[in-house]
Amino acid sequence: MAVAISTEEIEAARPCRDGSSDCLPRRDSTIGRPVRARTPATSASRTRLGGARALALQLSLIVGAALAYFGVRGLTEGSESTAVEHARGVLRFERTLGIDIEQGVQSWILGHNWIVTAANWVYIWGHWPVITITFFWLYRRHHGSFLLLRNAMFISGAIGLVIFMSYPVAPPRLMPAGFVDTVTELSTSYRVLQPPALVNKFAAVPSLHVGWNLLVGIMLYRTLKHPVTRIVALGGPLLMASAVVLTANHYVFDVLAGSTVALVGLAAASLLACRPVDAGSTARRIIPVRPCPALVRPTPVPVPVRVGHNR
Length: 311
Hints:
3% strand, two-stranded parallel sheet, 13 helices, mainly alpha, single chain
């Protein structure tokens, strides 16, 4: 059946002078009408819509994981007597290694109010606010590092939950005597950032307060180029490690355990990012990672085979 084409349609079908394929109208094969090409404004609006959807997906994943993490952590709080006994075991182990410095250093800083204030400030404002800002910045500027940080925090958080449930440990501030809870006694800010209902009091080991700040520092060091900003990136985790001990929230052993768990999470996330995946797989669209180029398996495309007569 012949399809009548008007002169206007013939003119519209001619290529643009600049050779842009966006200017070529596409023809509806069923009725023969040219389909209006996508304009730059339409493309930009769709790009913004897609970006907003992608951001909403990432935010929902992170918020959902955070709520699950704190919810499970709060519901799996062990008994106080068991947690205190485990804490005494940690102190005995530290004494064997010669690193049981918590009570001595806190007794010293209690006579220097400015150090106490600085340690409280780092502990309160140097964790979740820093993580949140880093997440948004990496999402906008270094998406691959954002995905790696997100996955590393997911994995290390899951490992931490298993340890919290199986081995509850009371922090120094909850031990019978000798330590002062400088954060909650001198400030109410931390209760706003982390309500008591979401807190497991006996989740001292490992210190993900330090571990996650270490992950942030590593990601910032990898993405920042100026030497000064790189030093700041590496100094952040060191300040947090000092703050959690000085404020009697963690033992030195907790800091080492939290750093180890975080690095294990980062190693696992790096392996996940380099796993062989199909370029068009559903998993890549829902929870995208940036696989190593050498390990990407492209989606198979059928190639037509010409069948001809041999001459």
